[in-house]
Design brief:
Helices cover about 30% and strands about 20% of the residues. The protein has about 425 residues and is α/β, with parallel strands linked by helices. The protein has two domains: about 5-265 and about 395-419, Rossmann fold (3-Layer(aba) Sandwich); about 270-390, DNA Methylase, Chain A, domain 2. It has a ten-stranded mixed beta sheet with strand order 3-2-1-4-7-9-8-11-12-10, with helices on both faces. The protein is globular and about 65 Å long. The protein starts with a strand and ends with a helix. The model is unreliable at about 90-100 (pLDDT under 50).
Length: about 425
């Protein structure tokens, strides 16, 4: 059994790493990484250096889909961490394909690949996004996710989703992300989901098996997703009330079930201290001296500041205090893209190790995302850029577990066919 994979929005290869660690069955046959508004494509350079013989492209995926679609090979599994944007429908197509979204919104590139592949579309999807996708935009809570579900339903996919906090399953970083798995109606898994329904959500499914949740008496909320994309875009939850989508859910044949679940992890918890390198290996520019410490303490502390906006209105800006330095005996806070650089910041990690305050080095950030040491180290790539990569990346261990779950489920169906 070989599972041909296409990796979109590849970054520095987090999905590829996770899948390759999960099973030798995964074969990445094509990948794409493109960073708009930048001359040097740093992430793509790292990807190419780590997989020099990969069938990798560094071009705008929208242009590939529109003008050079044939370069995207047929594949079994499409993966990618696509940007969280406004997915509203904006463009009418004249060729009876219905309605699609505006240019520059990369969800529609995924949708176009699935649609244009037709009978050769991938059987499986594994996608990742920030968890606010379930409740955006503020004026129509959940509309963006409803558009995605409606699109995938029209293309013949069943979908399960789960918001996974990596730290709740023994990984070293508190990073909450939504993972979306899709199964085409031509697959055996689709038929299993149709029979299992909510059992798949909490007990028997790919996600539930790898990321178990506590038993609950809670009855899932269920409703239908409209098949009219324009109607979903314009009318879904128009009052802007709470999103119907909880952290766990399933959609098949246009019907969805969703409920709030809690992690049921009984393994060993990894903590920040476990990823740290000895201070002797840390370059001097990462240490914080006494003169700089006050600025860091101010940034991390509680404060109330008077500000004036562009129209001259004065208002109070307040924020609570946070741990300083970061506790070593707990999983780390979420890495953000602004992690790098010496400038004091509320959101950058600072540790106190052997009586010295310092920022985290790129190797430690890589470890928090479960990347191999020095994965992003390359001539011409700064430490600040390496930190940016990790702020954009996913936790490799989650993809690895999902990959193992998918392979196991496919193995079951193969055995059932033979039996």
């Amino acid at each position: 059994m070989s599972i041909r994979v296409v990796e979109l929005f590849a970054g520095v290869g987090g999905f590829r790493l996770g899948l390759e660690q999960a099973s030798s069955e995964f074969d990445v046959v094509w990948s794409n990484q493109w960073e708009p508004s930048t001359k040097k494509q740093h992430a793509s350079l790292v990807y190419e250096s780590r997989w020099p013989n990969a069938n990798h492209t560094n071009a705008n995926i929208e242009e590939i889909v529109e003008r050079d679609f044939d370069q995207i090979p047929d594949h079994d599994l499409l993966v990618g961490g696509f940007p969280c944007q406004d997915y509203s429908v904006a463009t009418t197509l004249r060729n009876s394909k219905g309605l699609r979204g505006k240019k520059g919104v990369l969800w529609w590139s995924i949708e176009a690949i699935l649609r244009k592949k037709g009978n050769d579309c991938p059987k499986y999807l594994m996608l990742e996004n920030v968890d606010r996708l379930l409740k955006s935009p503020a004026t129509q809570r959940g509309r963006d996710f409803a558009i995605i579900l409606s699109s995938l339903n029209a293309l013949g996919y069943a979908v399960e989703w789960r918001v996974i906090n990596a730290a709740e399953y023994g990984m070293p970083q508190r990073r909450r992300r939504i993972f979306i798995l899709g199964y085409h109606r031509s697959t055996e898994i689709y038929k299993q989901i149709k029979a299992a329904k909510t059992e798949w959500l909490t007990k028997t499914g790919v996600v539930a098996t790898e990321f178990p949740v506590k038993e609950t008496n809670q009855k899932p909320f269920t409703d239908k997703i409209d098949s009219d994309l324009k109607k979903v875009s314009e009318e879904f939850n128009k009052e802007g009330k709470l999103s119907p989508f909880q952290n766990t859910g399933l959609m098949i044949d246009g019907q969805f079930w969703t409920l709030k679940t809690e992690s049921d992890f009984k393994g060993e918890e990894k903590v920040l201290e476990e990823v740290l390198v000895p201070n002797s290996e840390v370059p001097k520019e990462f240490f914080i001296n006494k003169a700089e410490l006050k600025s860091w303490e101010f940034q991390k502390g509680a404060k109330k500041i008077e500000r004036t906006n562009s129209s001259g209105h004065t208002y109070s800006y307040a924020e609570g205090g946070m741990n300083f330095p970061d506790p070593l005996d707990k999983p780390s806070r979420t890495i953000i893209t602004g992690e790098g650089g010496k400038t004091p910041s509320r959101f950058k990690h600072v540790v106190l190790k052997d009586s010295k305050y310092r920022r985290l080095v790129p190797k430690e950030l890589e470890r928090l995302n479960m990347f191999p040491d020095d994965h992003t180290q390359l001539d011409g790539i700064t430490d600040q850029k390496r930190a940016f990569f990790m702020g954009n990346a996913l936790v490799v261990g989650i993809v690895e577990k999902l990959g193992k779950g998918l392979v196991r489920e496919l193995g079951k169906t193969e055995n059932e066919k033979k039996g």
